Amino acid sequence: MSLGGQQQPNITVSNTAELERVAKTRKNLDVAEEYKKLKTKENANFVVIGHVDAGKSTLMGRLLYDLGVVDERTLKKYKQEAEKIGKSSFAFAWVLDQTSEERSRGVTIDIASNKFETENCSYTILDAPGHKDFIPNMIAGASQADFAVLVIDSTTGEFETGFNFRGQTKEHTLLVRSMGVQRIIVAVNKLDNANWSSARFEEITAQIGQFLTTAGFNPKNVSFVPCSGLTGANVTKKPKEGLIPWYTGGTLVDELEKTKPSKRAIEKPFRLTVADVFRGGVMHPVSVAGRVDAGSVQVGDILVDMPTGERAAVKAIEVDDEQRDWAIAGHNAVLHLAGIEIDHIRQGDILCDPTHPIPAVSSFNMKILAFESITPMMVDIHRGRLNTAGRVAKMIAVYDKATGTVTKKKPRHILAGGLASITVQVDNGPGVIGGGTIPVEVGTRIVLRAFGQTVAAGLVEA
Amino acid sequence: MKVIKNLVDRDGNGSITLFPEEPEDMWHTYNLLTLGDHLTASAIRKVSTESSTGSTSTHRVHTTLTTTITSIDFDPPSSTLHINGRVITENKHVKLGSYHTLDLELNRNFTITKPNGGWDSVAMQVIRDACDPAEKAEIGAVVMQEGLANVCLVTEYMTVLRQRVDVSLPRKRRGVAMVSFDKGMERFYEQVYQAILKHLPIESLKVVLLASPGFLADGLMKYIFAKATTAGNIPLLRSRPKFITAHTSSGHIHSLSELLASQEIQARLTNTRFLKESRAIDEFYAMMTTDEDRAWYGISEVEKAVGKGAVQTLLISNSLMRSQTVVERRRYVRMVEEVKGNGGEALVLSSVHESGRRLDGLGGVAAILGFPLLGLDEDENEEEAEEEEEGQRLEKEANGEGAVNGVNGTEVVKVKV
Ligand SMILES: Nc1nc2c(ncn2[C@@H]2O[C@H](COP(=O)(O)OP(=O)(O)OP(=O)(O)O)[C@@H](O)[C@H]2O)c(=O)[nH]1
Ligand SMILES: [Mg+2]
Question: Where does the record place Acidic residues bias (chain B) (predicted)?
């Protein structure tokens, strides 16, 4: 067994009465059936990535404003307040940059999520921070995304900085790809700074296009959109006549709409990655927000939290701020819980079907793509929002990238760019919550980082 | 530590009487002891006496015992050392052959007697290091990321986690007011501040490093001194020049190695031993990426490189040196001596520093070579050779060569030889 040191859920009995009371309210719905019957819009999450200051937040703020999600009055307020602290160019970004730290520094620190709808689809934006220090938060966002919008600053010199060896354009792109994202829309942004030059657009398109192919994106899943978040040109509205006569494609929103929603793991056992835990109100002392990764949940269900093994009952469910009887894979849901203390459930935990809980393990094997050279070494293990300390404990094999056959067993060193299998060990230092275990199962996507760089990414294997 | 009496002969047999003065001396002692050594130290023993009327009473007596060591237990946070053994000298309170745990105490002599030439060059170096009167750098280090802080004390030979602060900060969600982020952050800073006050002896520290990705370290720095000002904490305010903020990419303890690699920190901590060790292991990893044929790790690989006189810098963890078989220890000591004899450098890293933990992850030994060597891991049938070696080791132990350890004895049963 490669998933070492599994922990059995230690089910406590003190809250049984409460769990049973809530379980009685269960309507025993066939959720998959309900979902088919219900003719709601499709829903999709996308993560907005790119080098720091590429204009990601501004672009999304603009999009939300032009679609009427953010009203005139709010934006006016942001403009005035931003001006007061000498950051007037950030007014649109403030729609997503919500904390005082982010606003005063003019930099996104944590993922912001926001919603908007088009005729056919309801979208959740996950606006990622570009600064390399906040990549753990970017990973948390990317782990919930169906597809990505890569924002490029086309200003002279800026594209080059972001695209070079240590810039985040490449690191972000490789990360989303290794986290399962296949569709990417490249917003060639700030073209107002480049006089809407077709030559500049072509230059960027060529370089990024080539890079995306080597990163493993199929060209038919890649599109390029020239735009400016600041002026709003070609974001939701067609640009003024004559601005980009050389461009025949659609606006950014048109491209979003062309994206086919990804398949949902509806039939798999229930999994929800906890993004946040909070008091949902007087009636709801313990609430969690997160995306349903797999399966479905309904009011009255008993769930188990991993790695703690504590049980909780679902009192109420909200999807898109509306009360619902159920939620299904792909939904961003709020679950109001009973029978569990607020301190016993943490960001990054996985709420599971108690008959098929995700194992909490102290070591696991994974198949990786090495971004940097790998030897047995200390790493930060990232699994969505969760990040914990660990080490590359064993190196199992290196594979030929083309054929997938083993080229060396027990390698002592994996070169950057190599494909390999390794064993990762979770640190179990004193005071580590979860006792040095992490909830993973075969197929879980993991990113390994060290010294501020992504060193490898891949999938947990048996 | 002071050497009170040295009765070691030329062959490395005999006894040394030591006087431990500071907590770190317990760590040195831990690295000196080997199973089977004789330890003489003062002990408290409960004694029951039966009076002529038949009633019994117990009381404690101070006595001196000599034991043959059967197991050793060291607890880094408290720097305490418990040594179990069998009593081997006649004593009026204790039966010969009975078990006793000796707890070594500061400012009380004890004597270690080693058979089989156990006072080898590495052991004698430990004694010299322990007795080095040079002023020792102690630093406080707080490494943080959002909601997580590790408050550590780093001494010449040990890194001790004093407290881990782990709180959930509110996340950005629609409808969350801006003040709740600020409040969450303030609560986090307050907990870290309290942990620093409680666990770091700031006045005796050389520096206090606050490190994090992003703006946390700066934020904490501001918080600490705003608090100290309102509270009128004069000693803390006076210590302000000791506080330095720095950058790390995460708040996990292992990011301490990243911290020590920064030039600014290196400038403040020149000539400290842990910095040298940290730099050496960084160099090893750097060599692995630039010229992998000059970077080797693992016992048999490095041993081959040593044999070829290729090793420029040998890194060996004292977790290997504490190896409980005499045969194995000799093997490592020989490597150290050979490298030094060839003009190379041999560093014995402390396994309770981050550098030592990294080295332990590489099997406890690594080497930077002066010239490239190929295929040190390849000759023979690798797997079989390894298994055979392991088998031989266990066989020897089973035959009572070297190991005097009951635990190893049980291991033998589990493994097919
Ligand atoms: N000229 C021009 N400036 C822009 C455009 N979009 C954004 N900016 C400016 O670029 C700066 C950074 O914008 P942000 O939206 O905060 O960039 P970001 O990519 O979200 O930055 P991080 O989240 O910190 O990585 C601000 O000063 C914006 O006004 C654009 O289309 N044209
Ligand atoms: Mg931003």
Answer: 378-390
Whole-number average pLDDT of chain B = 86
What is d(CA B168, CA A345) in angstroms, rounded to the nearest whole number? Answer: 10
- CATH number of the domain at A7-28+264-352, please? 2.40.30.10
Q: Where in chain A is the domain with CATH 3.40.50.300?
A: 42-257
**Cβ contact A420:A408 at 8 Å:** no
Residue A83, C-beta contacts closer than 8 angstroms, at least 6 positions apart: A91
Q: What chain A residue is nearest to B258 in terms of C-alpha separation? A: A451
- The whole-number average pLDDT for the span A319-347 is 91
Q: What is the pLDDT of residues A243-265, one digit of tens each?
A: 999 999 999 999 999 988 778 88
Q: Does some domain include residue B376?
A: no
pLDDT at B132: 87
Chain A: give the shortest CA distance to residue B136, in Å. Answer: 26
Q: Is A189 in the pocket of ligand 1 (CB under 6 A)?
A: yes
Q: Which residues pair with A265 in a beta bridge?
A: A294
Protein residue closest via CA to atom 13 of ligand 1:
A55
| B388-410 mean pLDDT | 38
Ligand 1 centroid–CA A92 distance in Å is 9
In a domain, B83, yes or no: yes
Q: B253 to chain A: nearest residue by CA? A: A389
Tens digits of residue pLDDT in B100-144: 999 998 999 999 999 888 999 999 999 999 998 877 778 999 999
Beta-carbon separation of A452 and B249 below 8 A? yes
A364 — pLDDT class (breaks 50, 70, 90) = very high
* CATH number for domain A42-257, candidates 3.40.50.300, 3.40.50.1100, 3.20.20.80, 1.50.10.10: 3.40.50.300
Is the CB of B361 less than 8 angstroms away from the CB of A393? yes
- Report pLDDT for A6: 52
pLDDT value for A431: 53
| pTM, full prediction | 0.89
State in words which class domain A362-460 has.
Answer: mainly beta
Q: How far is A275 from chain B (nearest CA, A)?
A: 8
Enumerate the residues of chain B whose CB falls inside 8 A of the CB of residue A127: none
Are residues B207 and B240 in contact, defined by beta-carbon separation less than 8 angstroms? no
**By CB neighbour count within 10 A (0-12 exposed, 13-18 middle, 19+ buried), where does A396 fall?**
middle
First CA to last CA across chain A, in angstroms?
Answer: 7
Alpha helix locations (H) across A71-127?
Answer: 72-84, 100-105
Nearest residue, CB atoms, B253 vs list A111, A133, A429: A429
CA distance A55 to chain B (A): 19
d(Cα B169, Cα A100) in Å, to the nearest integer?
14
> Which of A47, A51, A53 is the best mutation target for the ligand 1 pocket, counting ligand atoms within 8 Å of the beta carbon and taking the most?
A53
Chain B residue with CA closest to A345: the answer is: B168
In chain A, residues with a C-beta closer than 8 Å to the C-beta of B357 are 378
Instruction: Give the per-residue pLDDT at A430.
Output: 57
For residues A382 and A452, what is the distance between their CA atoms, to the nearest angstrom? Answer: 13
pLDDT at B407 over 50: no
Q: Is A54 in the pocket of ligand 1 (CB under 6 A)?
A: yes
Closest residue by Cα to residue A454 from A368, A385, A396: A368
Say what the pLDDT of residue B341 is. Answer: 94
Say if B386 falls within a structural domain: no
| CB-closest option in B172, B214, B254 to A133 | B214
Task: State the pLDDT at residue A280.
Answer: 83
